[in-house]
Amino acid sequence: MIITLILFGVVILSMVVQSRVTGTFRKYSQVPDRSGLTGAEVARRILDENGLSDVNIEHSPGGFLSDHYDPRSRVLRLSREVYQGSNIAALGVAAHECGHAIQHGEHYGAFKLRQALAPTAGIGSQAGMLLFIVGLIMSWPPLTYAGIGLYALIVIFQLITLPVELNASSRALSILESGGYMDWEEAGGAKKVLSAAAMTYLMSALVGILSLLRLISLANNRR
Ligand SMILES: [Zn+2]
């Protein structure tokens, strides 16, 4: 019961955190960057400077804040706002995605682990929940616990995501400043955008851990 209540609170809180990301991004997308470069231009330069000239930059079809680095095709996909934007928010996000490409190029441990777990984690969340429910209905504990085990995979995945995201952001901020793309004041704004985004990953991990605890306590109550 207590876990359900905490979970409910955290889910509400994560909605607030999510809307803060949008708000912070919109706020700093109103602040033009003094370099005058767009997100795509800065990303191209950062990638080239880090020996990643073969990583292409494309428009992301996913819309607002759908920016990501695709390690399979080694492509940086930037949303329209980031690709074309000449502002603090656009440059911050573009540099963050470059951070992931650099992690990939350097074989950064947490990035590799996250990539290896990604396919299994995708299956784990759905199949895990299905096995869990069927196990409960059939009153067959091994199936229920197998479901919990699969669900735990996605929580591990969410936890590994945290250092990967924080590291990409810290790389981004230091590159933006040391590369002369931003001054100290501008980098402060970019940091706020990236920190707000990092909070969403923290909230997802929290929701994941609490959901897992809830499944475990439901399974134990049934016995
Ligand atoms: Zn990221």
Automatic annotation (TrEMBL):
Q: Name one Pfam family in it.
A: Zn_peptidase_2
> What UniProt keywords apply to this chain's record, in alphabetical order?
Membrane, Transmembrane, Transmembrane helix
Q: Which residues cross the membrane?
A: 116-138, 145-164, 193-216
- Please identify the protein, giving its name as recorded: Zinc metallopeptidase
Q: Which organism is it from?
A: Gehongia tenuis
